[in-house]
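Hi there,

I know you've been waiting on this one. I reran it after we fixed the sequence typo, so this is the corrected version. Both the input and the resulting structure follow.
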Amino acid sequence: MKKFLLVVLLLVLLLIAGAAIFVLRFDADRYRPMVVSRLEEALGKSVKLERLARGWDRGLALRLKGLEIADEAGATGEPLLQLEAASAIMELVPLLRREIRVTAVLLDRPRVHAVRRPDGTLDLLGRAAAGGPVAASGRTATVGSASVAFEIATVLIENGMLHVTDLTAQ
């Protein structure tokens, strides 16, 4: 009986070691072109992203560095969003059930540029600001042929700046 338990313990340790090696060697930056193209498709704006990396911070963390969303339609020449760094910390167990539970999103030194267009609409990240709820908890999105639940618990912003340009006077 002791040999059986020893073999089971050894197999569990090998499984844990294999999972740890996979997580440590996983290169998230190879997905950067796909992330950039999906963001450009969703926003209809040019997007730049310097680096995409995985990390560990009270859970699995996805880190962005050097995100910039351009304002092609703007007369200001200033990007709509510049983000020095961001991290999304995710719970591990829900990922196995195809659920993305983000415990915290940390935004470091974001610079958001809002533009009030000549017709009076407020343009934020290339979209006219609309009334109503910004987000709903527990939403499900379809990725390929599978649905994925997505939920964010907390968003923290450090040293952020909001710049508003009013073009109604032109």
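Quick highlight: The helical segments are 2-25, 32-43, 92-96.

Best,
R. S.
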